[in-house]
């Protein structure tokens, strides 16, 4: 079994997809880092009135100005109710940071590394995993190598399991690679680690109000591990679903296209059908797990971290059952 897994990993590496993903990550992380640095300088200039001044400023005074700006924005008659609720939660969080002496403004390597996964977990990261796993089985059909593969005196389920484990191994590599690139690039850009700075987590939204009664303070490095663990969990689920589609469809382009359509379609469903209670059971709506750590406003009621994790687990279990059932029974030699 170990030899089978090794062969599958080497086969996937030979396709150079991991190299492509590495290049995409390098470019995107660099651009994101540049953008965050520029945004930071713009914020300093906007609220302090001193162009180019990024040292020795009163961050509490600037956060108070941000709160005032958000309050003025919230009072606008053109702001929708959902947006007002989201802004109000943001205001309460900023006030909590002031009261507990937590600086949310100054960028550090730790904050950037965390923010990148916060933004990537629900779309960018799944896209990379789909690219990686979309042809795990369908690629064998497209290249006409499936017959050669099945002539080995190895049960079908072992062949399929080795491919699945290979996909999971490469998915883990993508997560580790993302973290390493973020740490290295942001360390050069911000010249500050910030890994031992405090971080507040455990916020909850109850009745459009922020509940901070269960908030705990942890170090940034602890929070980063938590965030990237959730990113790994999402990657495993997306890899499993992509693997299932790859088994069923037999065509790489169609397999990747189906996963991309469902992933992007989930965002539209959440946007336009948020009042439909069944939408919360769709896997693509439950990918943004890190939002529960920061108490982002929930457009779909009844969702929580445990709920979303359970939904994703059920989707993955169903996908594995379907994958192995189909692969065992279908006539793959045709």
Automatic annotation (TrEMBL):
Q: Does the keyword Ribonucleoprotein apply?
A: no
Segments traversing the membrane = 121-143, 164-190, 225-249, 256-273, 305-327
Q: Which molecular-function annotation in GO is an example for this chain?
A: ABC-type transporter activity
Query: From which domain of life does this come?
Result: Bacteria
Matching Pfam families, A to Z?
Answer: ABC2_membrane_2 (PF12679)
Claim: Thylakoid is one of the keywords in the record: no
Q: Which PANTHER family match?
A: BACITRACIN TRANSPORT PERMEASE PROTEIN BCRB, INTEGRAL MEMBRANE PROTEIN-RELATED
- Protein name as it appears in the record: ABC transporter permease
């Amino acid at each position: 079994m170990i030899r089978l897994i090794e062969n599958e990993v080497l086969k996937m590496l030979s396709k150079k997809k991991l190299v492509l993903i590495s290049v995409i990550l390098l470019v995107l992380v660099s651009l994101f880092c540049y953008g965050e640095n520029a945004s930071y300088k713009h914020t300093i200039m906007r609220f302090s009135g001193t162009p180019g001044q990024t040292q020795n400023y009163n961050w509490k005074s600037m956060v108070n100005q941000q709160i005032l700006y958000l309050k003025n924005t919230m009072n606008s008659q053109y702001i929708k109710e959902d947006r007002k609720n989201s802004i109000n939660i943001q205001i309460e969080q900023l006030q909590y940071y002031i009261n507990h002496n937590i600086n949310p403004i100054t960028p550090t390597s730790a904050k950037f590394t965390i923010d990148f996964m916060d933004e990537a977990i629900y779309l960018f990261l799944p896209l990379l995993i789909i690219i990686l796993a979309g042809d795990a089985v369908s690629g064998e059909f497209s290249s006409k190598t499936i017959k050669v593969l099945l002539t080995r005196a190895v049960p079908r389920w072992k062949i399929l399991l080795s491919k699945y484990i290979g996909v999971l191994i490469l998915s883990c590599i993508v997560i580790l690679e993302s973290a390493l690139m973020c740490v290295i690039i942001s360390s050069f850009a911000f010249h500050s680690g910030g890994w031992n700075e405090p971080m507040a987590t455990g916020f909850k939204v109850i009745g459009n109000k922020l509940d901070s009664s269960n908030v705990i303070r942890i170090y940034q490095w602890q929070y980063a591990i938590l965030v990237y663990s959730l990113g790994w969990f999402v990657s495993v689920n997306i890899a499993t679903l992509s693997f299932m589609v790859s088994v069923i469809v037999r065509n790489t382009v169609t397999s990747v296209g189906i996963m991309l359509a469902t992933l992007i379609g989930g965002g539209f469903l959440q946007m336009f059908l948020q009042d439909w209670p069944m939408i919360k059971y769709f896997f693509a709506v439950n990918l943004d797990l890190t939002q529960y750590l920061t108490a982002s406003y929930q457009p779909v009621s009844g969702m929580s971290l445990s709920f979303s994790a359970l939904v994703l687990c059920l989707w993955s279990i169903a996908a594995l059952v379907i994958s192995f059932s189909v692969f065992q029974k279908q006539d793959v030699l045709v």
